[in-house]
Design goal:
This is GLPGLI family protein. Keywords: Signal. The protein is mainly β and 218 residues long. It has a single domain, classed as Clam (outer membrane lipoprotein receptor (LolB), chain A). 13% of the residues lie in helices and 47% in strands. It is built from 4 helices and 14 strands. Strand 4 and strand 5 form a beta hairpin. The termini are close together.
Length: 218
């Protein structure tokens, strides 16, 4: 379960690792994603435990916050893109943990997405009101997955952290991944460009036990 948590953590952080060259710079707002889970018949019970999972991305200037609800666990990730620091708040099995990482610590960890490339292909759809193109992601281990991306919405500036979407020509609004025999489709359901209150990025100071990342993520 910790391996699955770490992988989801990487996914949620990496969705921000893109260069700003779009028509609209995304400096303030919220994106609401859904997570649909499919599995082989013999693993359907595990898939059912994740049904209805969501994550929400908040952006305001240099600040990012990701709220992820995986049903069996919840986490919040607070990111300061100016100094590349991360604070993770994790709730699982009745326990609440706090974990702090910097960009260098993340870069030193194994990452199957290093060396990823993308090939545009025929296909398009409208997602959350934005026109999207289809690309196929190619991983160094030979696996592939589809990504629908828009060129009309991008974060401000450059954000670097073990980049899952390095080389993609836009912002991913839908993609599919296979994790432990579970096929997960992550889709943006709503994009709200209303200003996000600064209080959204206030990190709780109590109620969590701080843990060492090396011990927790093993």
């Amino acid at each position: 379960m910790k391996n699955l948590l770490l992988l989801f953590t990487l996914l949620s952080v990496q969705v921000l690792s893109l260069n700003a060259f779009s028509q609209k710079v995304f400096t303030d707002g919220t994106i609401y994603y859904s997570i649909k889970v499919d599995a082989p018949d013999n693993n359907q019970q595990l898939a059912n435990t994740f049904q209805g999972s969501t994550y929400t991305l908040y952006v305001k200037g240099k600040w990012r916050r990701i709220d992820m609800d995986l049903k069996m666990m919840k986490q919040q990730i607070y990111i300061n893109t100016q100094d590349s620091t991360y604070t993770f708040l994790i709730e699982t099995m009745g326990n609440k943990y706090m974990m702090r990482l910097n960009a260098e610590q993340l870069r030193k960890r194994p990452n199957p997405y290093r060396g990823i490339t993308f090939t545009d292909t025929i296909g398009s759809k409208n997602i959350a009101g934005y026109p999207c193109k289809l690309a196929i992601a190619h991983l160094p281990n030979g696996t592939t997955f589809p990504v629908y991306y828009t060129t009309q919405l991008m974060p401000e500036g450059e954000y670097s952290a073990d980049q899952m979407f390095t080389g993609l020509k836009g912002f991913p609004l839908e993609y599919q991944l296979t994790i432990q025999n579970l096929k997960m489709t992550i889709t943006a359901e709503k994009i709200d460009l209303a200003p996000v209150p600064m209080s959204t990025f206030d990190i709780p100071r109590s109620g969590y036990r701080e843990v060492n990342p090396d011990e927790f993520m093993q």
